Amino acid sequence: MCELIKRGQVETTWYCNFVCSNQERKKEKNLWVGLMLYTQNTHRLLVVSTECSPSNCQLPSCYCPGTAIPNNMPVSSVPQMVMLTFDDEVSAAFYGYYQRLFRPGRYNPNGCPVRGCLFVSGSGTTYDLVYPLYALGVEIASHSVSHRFPHTWWSGASYKDFVDEAKGMRDNLINQAGVPRSAIKGFRVPFLQLGSDNMYSALYDSGFE
């Protein structure tokens, strides 16, 4: 059986890792699930390891990895989910492409129009071009004000840095592009360079979803 070990602790975040020998990996036909319960009062981590099966893992909150299709759905009826997202500026250089891509008349098999999400950064963006895309049904999200270099800066950015960048860009989209506050739910960090607890805390406190 795999051994679940605690690698470290950052505030109330626990990092764990499954360690298996090659022989154990060959013998195991199923993944092992670690159920972790964090008790704030005692700062104890309770771990229960068990084999993933329909008896302890059920939809919609859990599903065991494998090739079986949920709910015995026919292969021909299984939808293929494709997410269209774009990063960085909205400017004249890309505006025509977005209009063609999301033009009226393009529909998914279920009848819904083809849409996507633009993670907009402040550098280079022409804000007058953002709202027409939002009006087409394209989701607009924050991608930072500066999109600053180097990419490693984001891994060490402070709580205030992330508030200024993420919330600041949302404010720009509201005030300069006219996108409603309620419509801007997401943030994508530049270069996908995660910023530890500072980033998550700043996004949570700023009301990102």
UniProtKB/TrEMBL annotation:
<dbReference type="InterPro" id="IPR011330">
    <property type="entry name" value="Glyco_hydro/deAcase_b/a-brl"/>
</dbReference>
<dbReference type="InterPro" id="IPR052740">
    <property type="entry name" value="CE4"/>
</dbReference>
<protein>
    <submittedName>
        <fullName>Chitin deacetylase 7-like</fullName>
    </submittedName>
</protein>
